Amino acid sequence: MKVIIHDLGEGITFSAGKPDKDSVVVHANNQYSPCRGCFKCWLKNAGFCIMKDSLQHIGACIGQSDPLIIISRCCYGGYSSPVKAILDRAIGSSLPLFTWRGGQTHHISRYPRRKLLRVYFYGECTKFEQETAKEIVERNRLNLDYEKVEMIFLENIEQLQEAGLCTF
Amino acid sequence: MHVLILHASPKKKGGASRFFAGLFSLFLPGTRKKTVSINSRQDFQRALELFPGMDVVCFFVPLYVDGLPSHVMEFLSQAEKYCKNHSCRFRLYAVSNNGFVEGKQNRPALHMLQAWCERAGITWGGGIGIGGGVMLRVLGTVYPILIGIILLQMAVSFFSTGIVPSGLWRSFAIQIFTWLFLNSGVLFCMARLSSAIRREQVLTDQFTRVMIPSFLFIPIANIFMILSSLFQGRFLFALLKREK
Ligand SMILES: Cc1cc2nc3c(=O)[nH]c(=O)nc-3n(C[C@H](O)[C@H](O)[C@H](O)COP(=O)(O)O)c2cc1C
After folding, report:
1. Which fold does the domain A2-167 belong to in CATH?
2. Where are the domains of chain A?
3. How is chain B split into domains, by residue range?
């Protein structure tokens, strides 16, 4: 299942999302609560959140997404707050148990290993912010358990259209 | 010197960031400290309004999905605007903690705060990344209880027999030293941070952790998770299911 998470606003059509019927587009519109850090998605529920809003089952969605495509404004070298809220709410995609991966401690994945995580960062971004973003996305790849990561920096959202990814 | 201690865990009560903020306060005697939490959006304005009067802001953040939590991102973008429109002359220092044992995993979070400083026109003072934050937080509750029990036994023994057996003194010392040892990296880095704050210096980012080797950390953390799920009325293995 292809999953696209984006913060581009309403009224966007994803050309990249068209071919497969089972692709899911998640619009990061901030109409949901941020994670409260209670860990109930690990310790009380089997991977789903206790808050009953549109993100209650986002862990299962992200845990089965291949490829996972994230399109976010680059903010201080990380994801924008609305996109980050979705990722924070999705930690149920892994198990609470710890393991050793890539020379560091990580959580065991709840779902099988997936192939591709692709991240588009758009907006003005300094060299230092790009380096920070690269480190974050590489760590996300390890934590979310993807084999491969692709990162693309775009100066503005028009370039997404030029790249044939979406139409406004 | 006016110091604002901001802690940013979304948890209303407890939380490792609050624990480290409390511990670090002990390293800042003689300064005028104010502690504020930003659990959620409602707290942002109150915290921002304190910015203009501060010489130092110390930001205690948890690591969420390899970066800053979403509500902190929202706070930072409001704070950037606020700092551009008000005269803020503080230096920002930060302490980021994470669940995994390696403190280095906090580096991107500290770099994001440094990048924020550049955009907001604030001086970055450096930070500490603490690995095993949850474990240190739990030990910070368990050890005072253990030490309290020993003190109680010492008091009972003193009032009933007039002496305190040497065995009790020994276990008292062992508990204190074990806690100090497990926290030694954190205490050392906090001392360096407080010295940098007092001397108005920039600290190169420091990374530390709970003083437990990783091969022990993993089984201990797993047992902790199993016990915590039992506490929630669930047996962990029932929680390993996948959703469709
Ligand atoms: C949504 C979420 C995401 C997290 N992501 C990470 C992570 O990527 N790496 C890590 O080491 N710990 C991670 N943690 C663990 C927290 O960093 C850790 O529990 C920290 O001590 C929380 O601090 P607090 O109690 O002040 O909120 C995460 C926790 C939550 C709730």
Report:
1. Rossmann fold (3.40.50)
2. 2-167
3. 2-137+184-212, 139-176, 214-244
Q: What is the pLDDT of residues B218-240, one digit of tens each?
A: 999 999 999 999 999 988 777 88
Query: Do B58 and B6 form a contact (C-beta atoms < 8 A)?
Result: yes
The set of residues, in sequence order, having a beta carbon less than 8 Å from that of A152 and lying 6+ positions away, is A118, A119, A120, A121, A163
Going edge to edge, which strands form the sheet with B2-7? B32-37, B2-7, B56-62, B91-97, B123-131, B206-209
Query: According to CATH, what is the number of the domain B2-137+184-212?
Result: 3.40.50.360
Does B24 have pLDDT greater than 70? yes
Yes or no, beta carbons of B112 and A84 under 8 Å apart: no
Alpha carbon of B29 to those of A138, B1, B97: distances in Å? 40, 11, 23
> Rounded to whole angstroms, how far apart are CA atoms A154 and A122?
5
Is B69's Cβ below 8 Å from some Cβ in A? yes
Helix B133-161 to helix B166-182 angle (10° resolution) is 170
Provide, as residue numbers in chain A, all residues whose Cβ is less than 8 Å from the Cβ of B73.
75-76, 78-81, 84
pLDDT in tens, A60-101: 999 999 999 999 999 999 999 999 999 999 999 999 999 988
3-state secondary structure of A15: coil
Instruction: Say if ligand 1 is within 6 A of residue A105 CB.
Output: no
Q: Is B54 exposed, middle or buried (0-12, 13-18, 19+ CB in 10 A)?
A: buried
Q: Mutating which of A5, A70, A73, A81 best tests the B interface, going by the most B Cβ atoms within 10 A?
A: A81
Answer yes or no: do A135 and B70 touch at CB < 8 A. Answer: no
How far apart are alpha carbons B40 and B61 in whole angstroms? 13
Is residue B100 within 8 A of residue B107, CB to CB? The reply is no
Cα pseudo-dihedral B175, B178, B179, B185, rounded to 10: 170
pTM for the predicted model, two decimal places: 0.95
Straight-line distance from the first to the last Cα atom of chain B, in angstroms, rounded to the nearest whole number: 56
Q: Which residues of B touch A39 (CB under 8 A)?
A: 228
Rounded to whole angstroms, the Cα distance separating B91 from B209 reads 25
Q: How far is CA B230 from CA B143, B217, B223, B226, in A?
A: 22, 20, 11, 6
Q: CA torsion sign, A73 to B59 to B57 to B204? A: negative
3 state SS of A163 = coil
Contact A60, B242 (CB under 8 A): yes
